[in-house]
Amino acid sequence: MTLSTKETNLLKDMKGQEQLCIDKYEKYAAEACSEELKTLFHTLADQERTHLTTVTDMMNGKVGAVGGSGSSKLNQVSCGKASYQSEECKKKDAFLCSDMLTTEKHVSSLYNTGIFEFADAQARNTLNHIQSEEQQHGLKIYDFMNANGMYQ
What we know:
Layout: H1 5-31, H2 35-59, H3 71-75, H4 87-117, H5 121-147
């Protein structure tokens, strides 16, 4: 696949955002108070690593078949009620979740733009698949927040 300048620049942006997501999820997993949130953030970081690899491959002209890059693993992560020993810990986790939900919204929007800008149908399908997984990330974070009275 030969990329236009615009496609190349979009992929550079996507690559940067995926790396940022990985870095934030790992940092926030270390900072989170609840074990449930730590597990969720580690799982999401793993899925973002897969996205980063896919985007990097696309930058190198390779577009493979889209497939299960970890959605089933994500579905196994519980987003139920966590036990908090203090209101301060709950507030901290709420902040981490809110920041990551905002990040996921931004990343999903970037992929949405890419889907409309790429000429290659297989590239559009790949970006659409990643965007769908980014939306699932946002849903898992929302589910955690909602179950723990953090979403308002």
